[in-house]
Design a protein that fits this description.
It is a single chain. This protein has 256 residues and is an alpha+beta fold. Helix content is 27%, strand content 32%. A five-stranded antiparallel sheet has the order 1-2-3-7-6. The chain has a five-stranded antiparallel sheet with strand order 11-10-9-12-15. A hairpin with a 4-residue loop joins strand 6 and strand 7. The protein starts with 8 loop residues before the first strand and ends with a strand. Bound molecules: thymidine-5'-phosphate and aspartic acid (ASP).
């Protein structure tokens, strides 16, 4: 399904399209069904994913707003779109990890599922062409991607988000293994630059395992060809109590 094309398209990513918003300083974030993994090497479509991620991300961004985390989310417009504040995206992916999985397991030879001695925060440079390399603070400040104060702010927001979401997911029987965030800059009412949470939080960029069975309920089902991908996203929405009626039919996954 293609997004409506009347509005000016500002940016098209792998899972979302950003359109010009109705007011200056706003954008419309459209959630696609497209899924990619391993830096675009694996591609597919998970029908209904965009609808579910729009709802799941709305729910989580509202909850984070309630605990005082500033986010770009303004309101959900329809099944696939939400109104967000326009930000200047900081070209970093901020990953928080509680349990070893994915690239951390591979890098350090840690068995998947090993509980980490403490939560670990990592930064990656957002560049598809380079495969999102991991970077240190030194690279971030030397190349001007963010200032030391901005790095501190992203770290402290990420830790707060991790604490809050760990509890939220545990409450619905899910273990928050890891997740990825993106932040952006806005100018506040006093003309100061401020960092707010942008992008989305959904099973596309979290690892969520059932607490009892360790069943994976996230994009690893797509990455690892485990099947029942859409059903897993639906299950997360169902447990959060936000299952949208329109995606009650079975979801299908098609791979290119
Ligand atoms: P990783 O183990 O592959 O580094 O992924 C860590 C977390 O970040 C996992 O929840 C998936 C998420 N992630 C993204 O959302 N986008 C990405 O491009 C990558 C590499 C990971
Ligand atoms: N989102 C990234 C990609 O499209 C990586 C991933 O999520 O595995 O390739």
């Amino acid at each position: 399904m293609l997004p409506r094309t009347r509005r000016r398209r500002i940016y098209e990513g792998k899972a979302k399209v950003m359109f010009e918003g109705p007011e200056p300083g706003t954008l419309i974030q459209y959630f696609k069904d497209d899924a990619t993994a391993f830096n675009n090497q694996k591609r597919g479509t998970i029908s209904g994913k965009g609808v579910l991620n729009n709802r799941i991300s709305e729910y989580i961004m509202i909850k984070l707003g309630e605990i005082g985390v500033p986010t770009h989310f303004m309101k959900r417009l329809n099944m696939r779109e939400q109104l967000v504040r326009q930000v200047e995206i900081i070209p970093l992916e901020v990953v928080a990890r509680n349990v070893a999985a994915g690239s951390l397991s591979k890098r350090f030879g840690l068995a998947e599922g090993t509980v980490l001695p403490r939560s670990v925060i990592e930064f990656y440079y957002k560049s598809d062409a380079l495969g999102d390399p991991m970077v240190a603070d030194e690279h971030i400040t030397a190349f001007g991607w963010a200032t030391p104060a901005e790095i501190d702010e992203m770290m402290s927001l990420t830790l707060r988000i991790n604490d809050y979401l760990t509890g939220l997911f545990l409450g619905i029987g899910l273990r928050l293994v890891d997740f990825k965030l993106e932040f952006g800059r806005v100018i506040d009412e006093n003309d100061n630059l401020r960092i707010i949470l942008a992008d989305e939080i959904s099973p596309d960029n979290c690892r969520l395992w059932d607490v009892k069975t360790n069943e994976k309920l996230d994009k690893d089902r797509f990455r690892q060809d485990l099947g029942q991908v859409g059903e897993a996203y639906q299950e997360v929405a169902r447990r959060l109590g936000i299952m949208p009626e329109a995606s009650a039919e079975p979801l299908k996954i098609e791979q290119e």
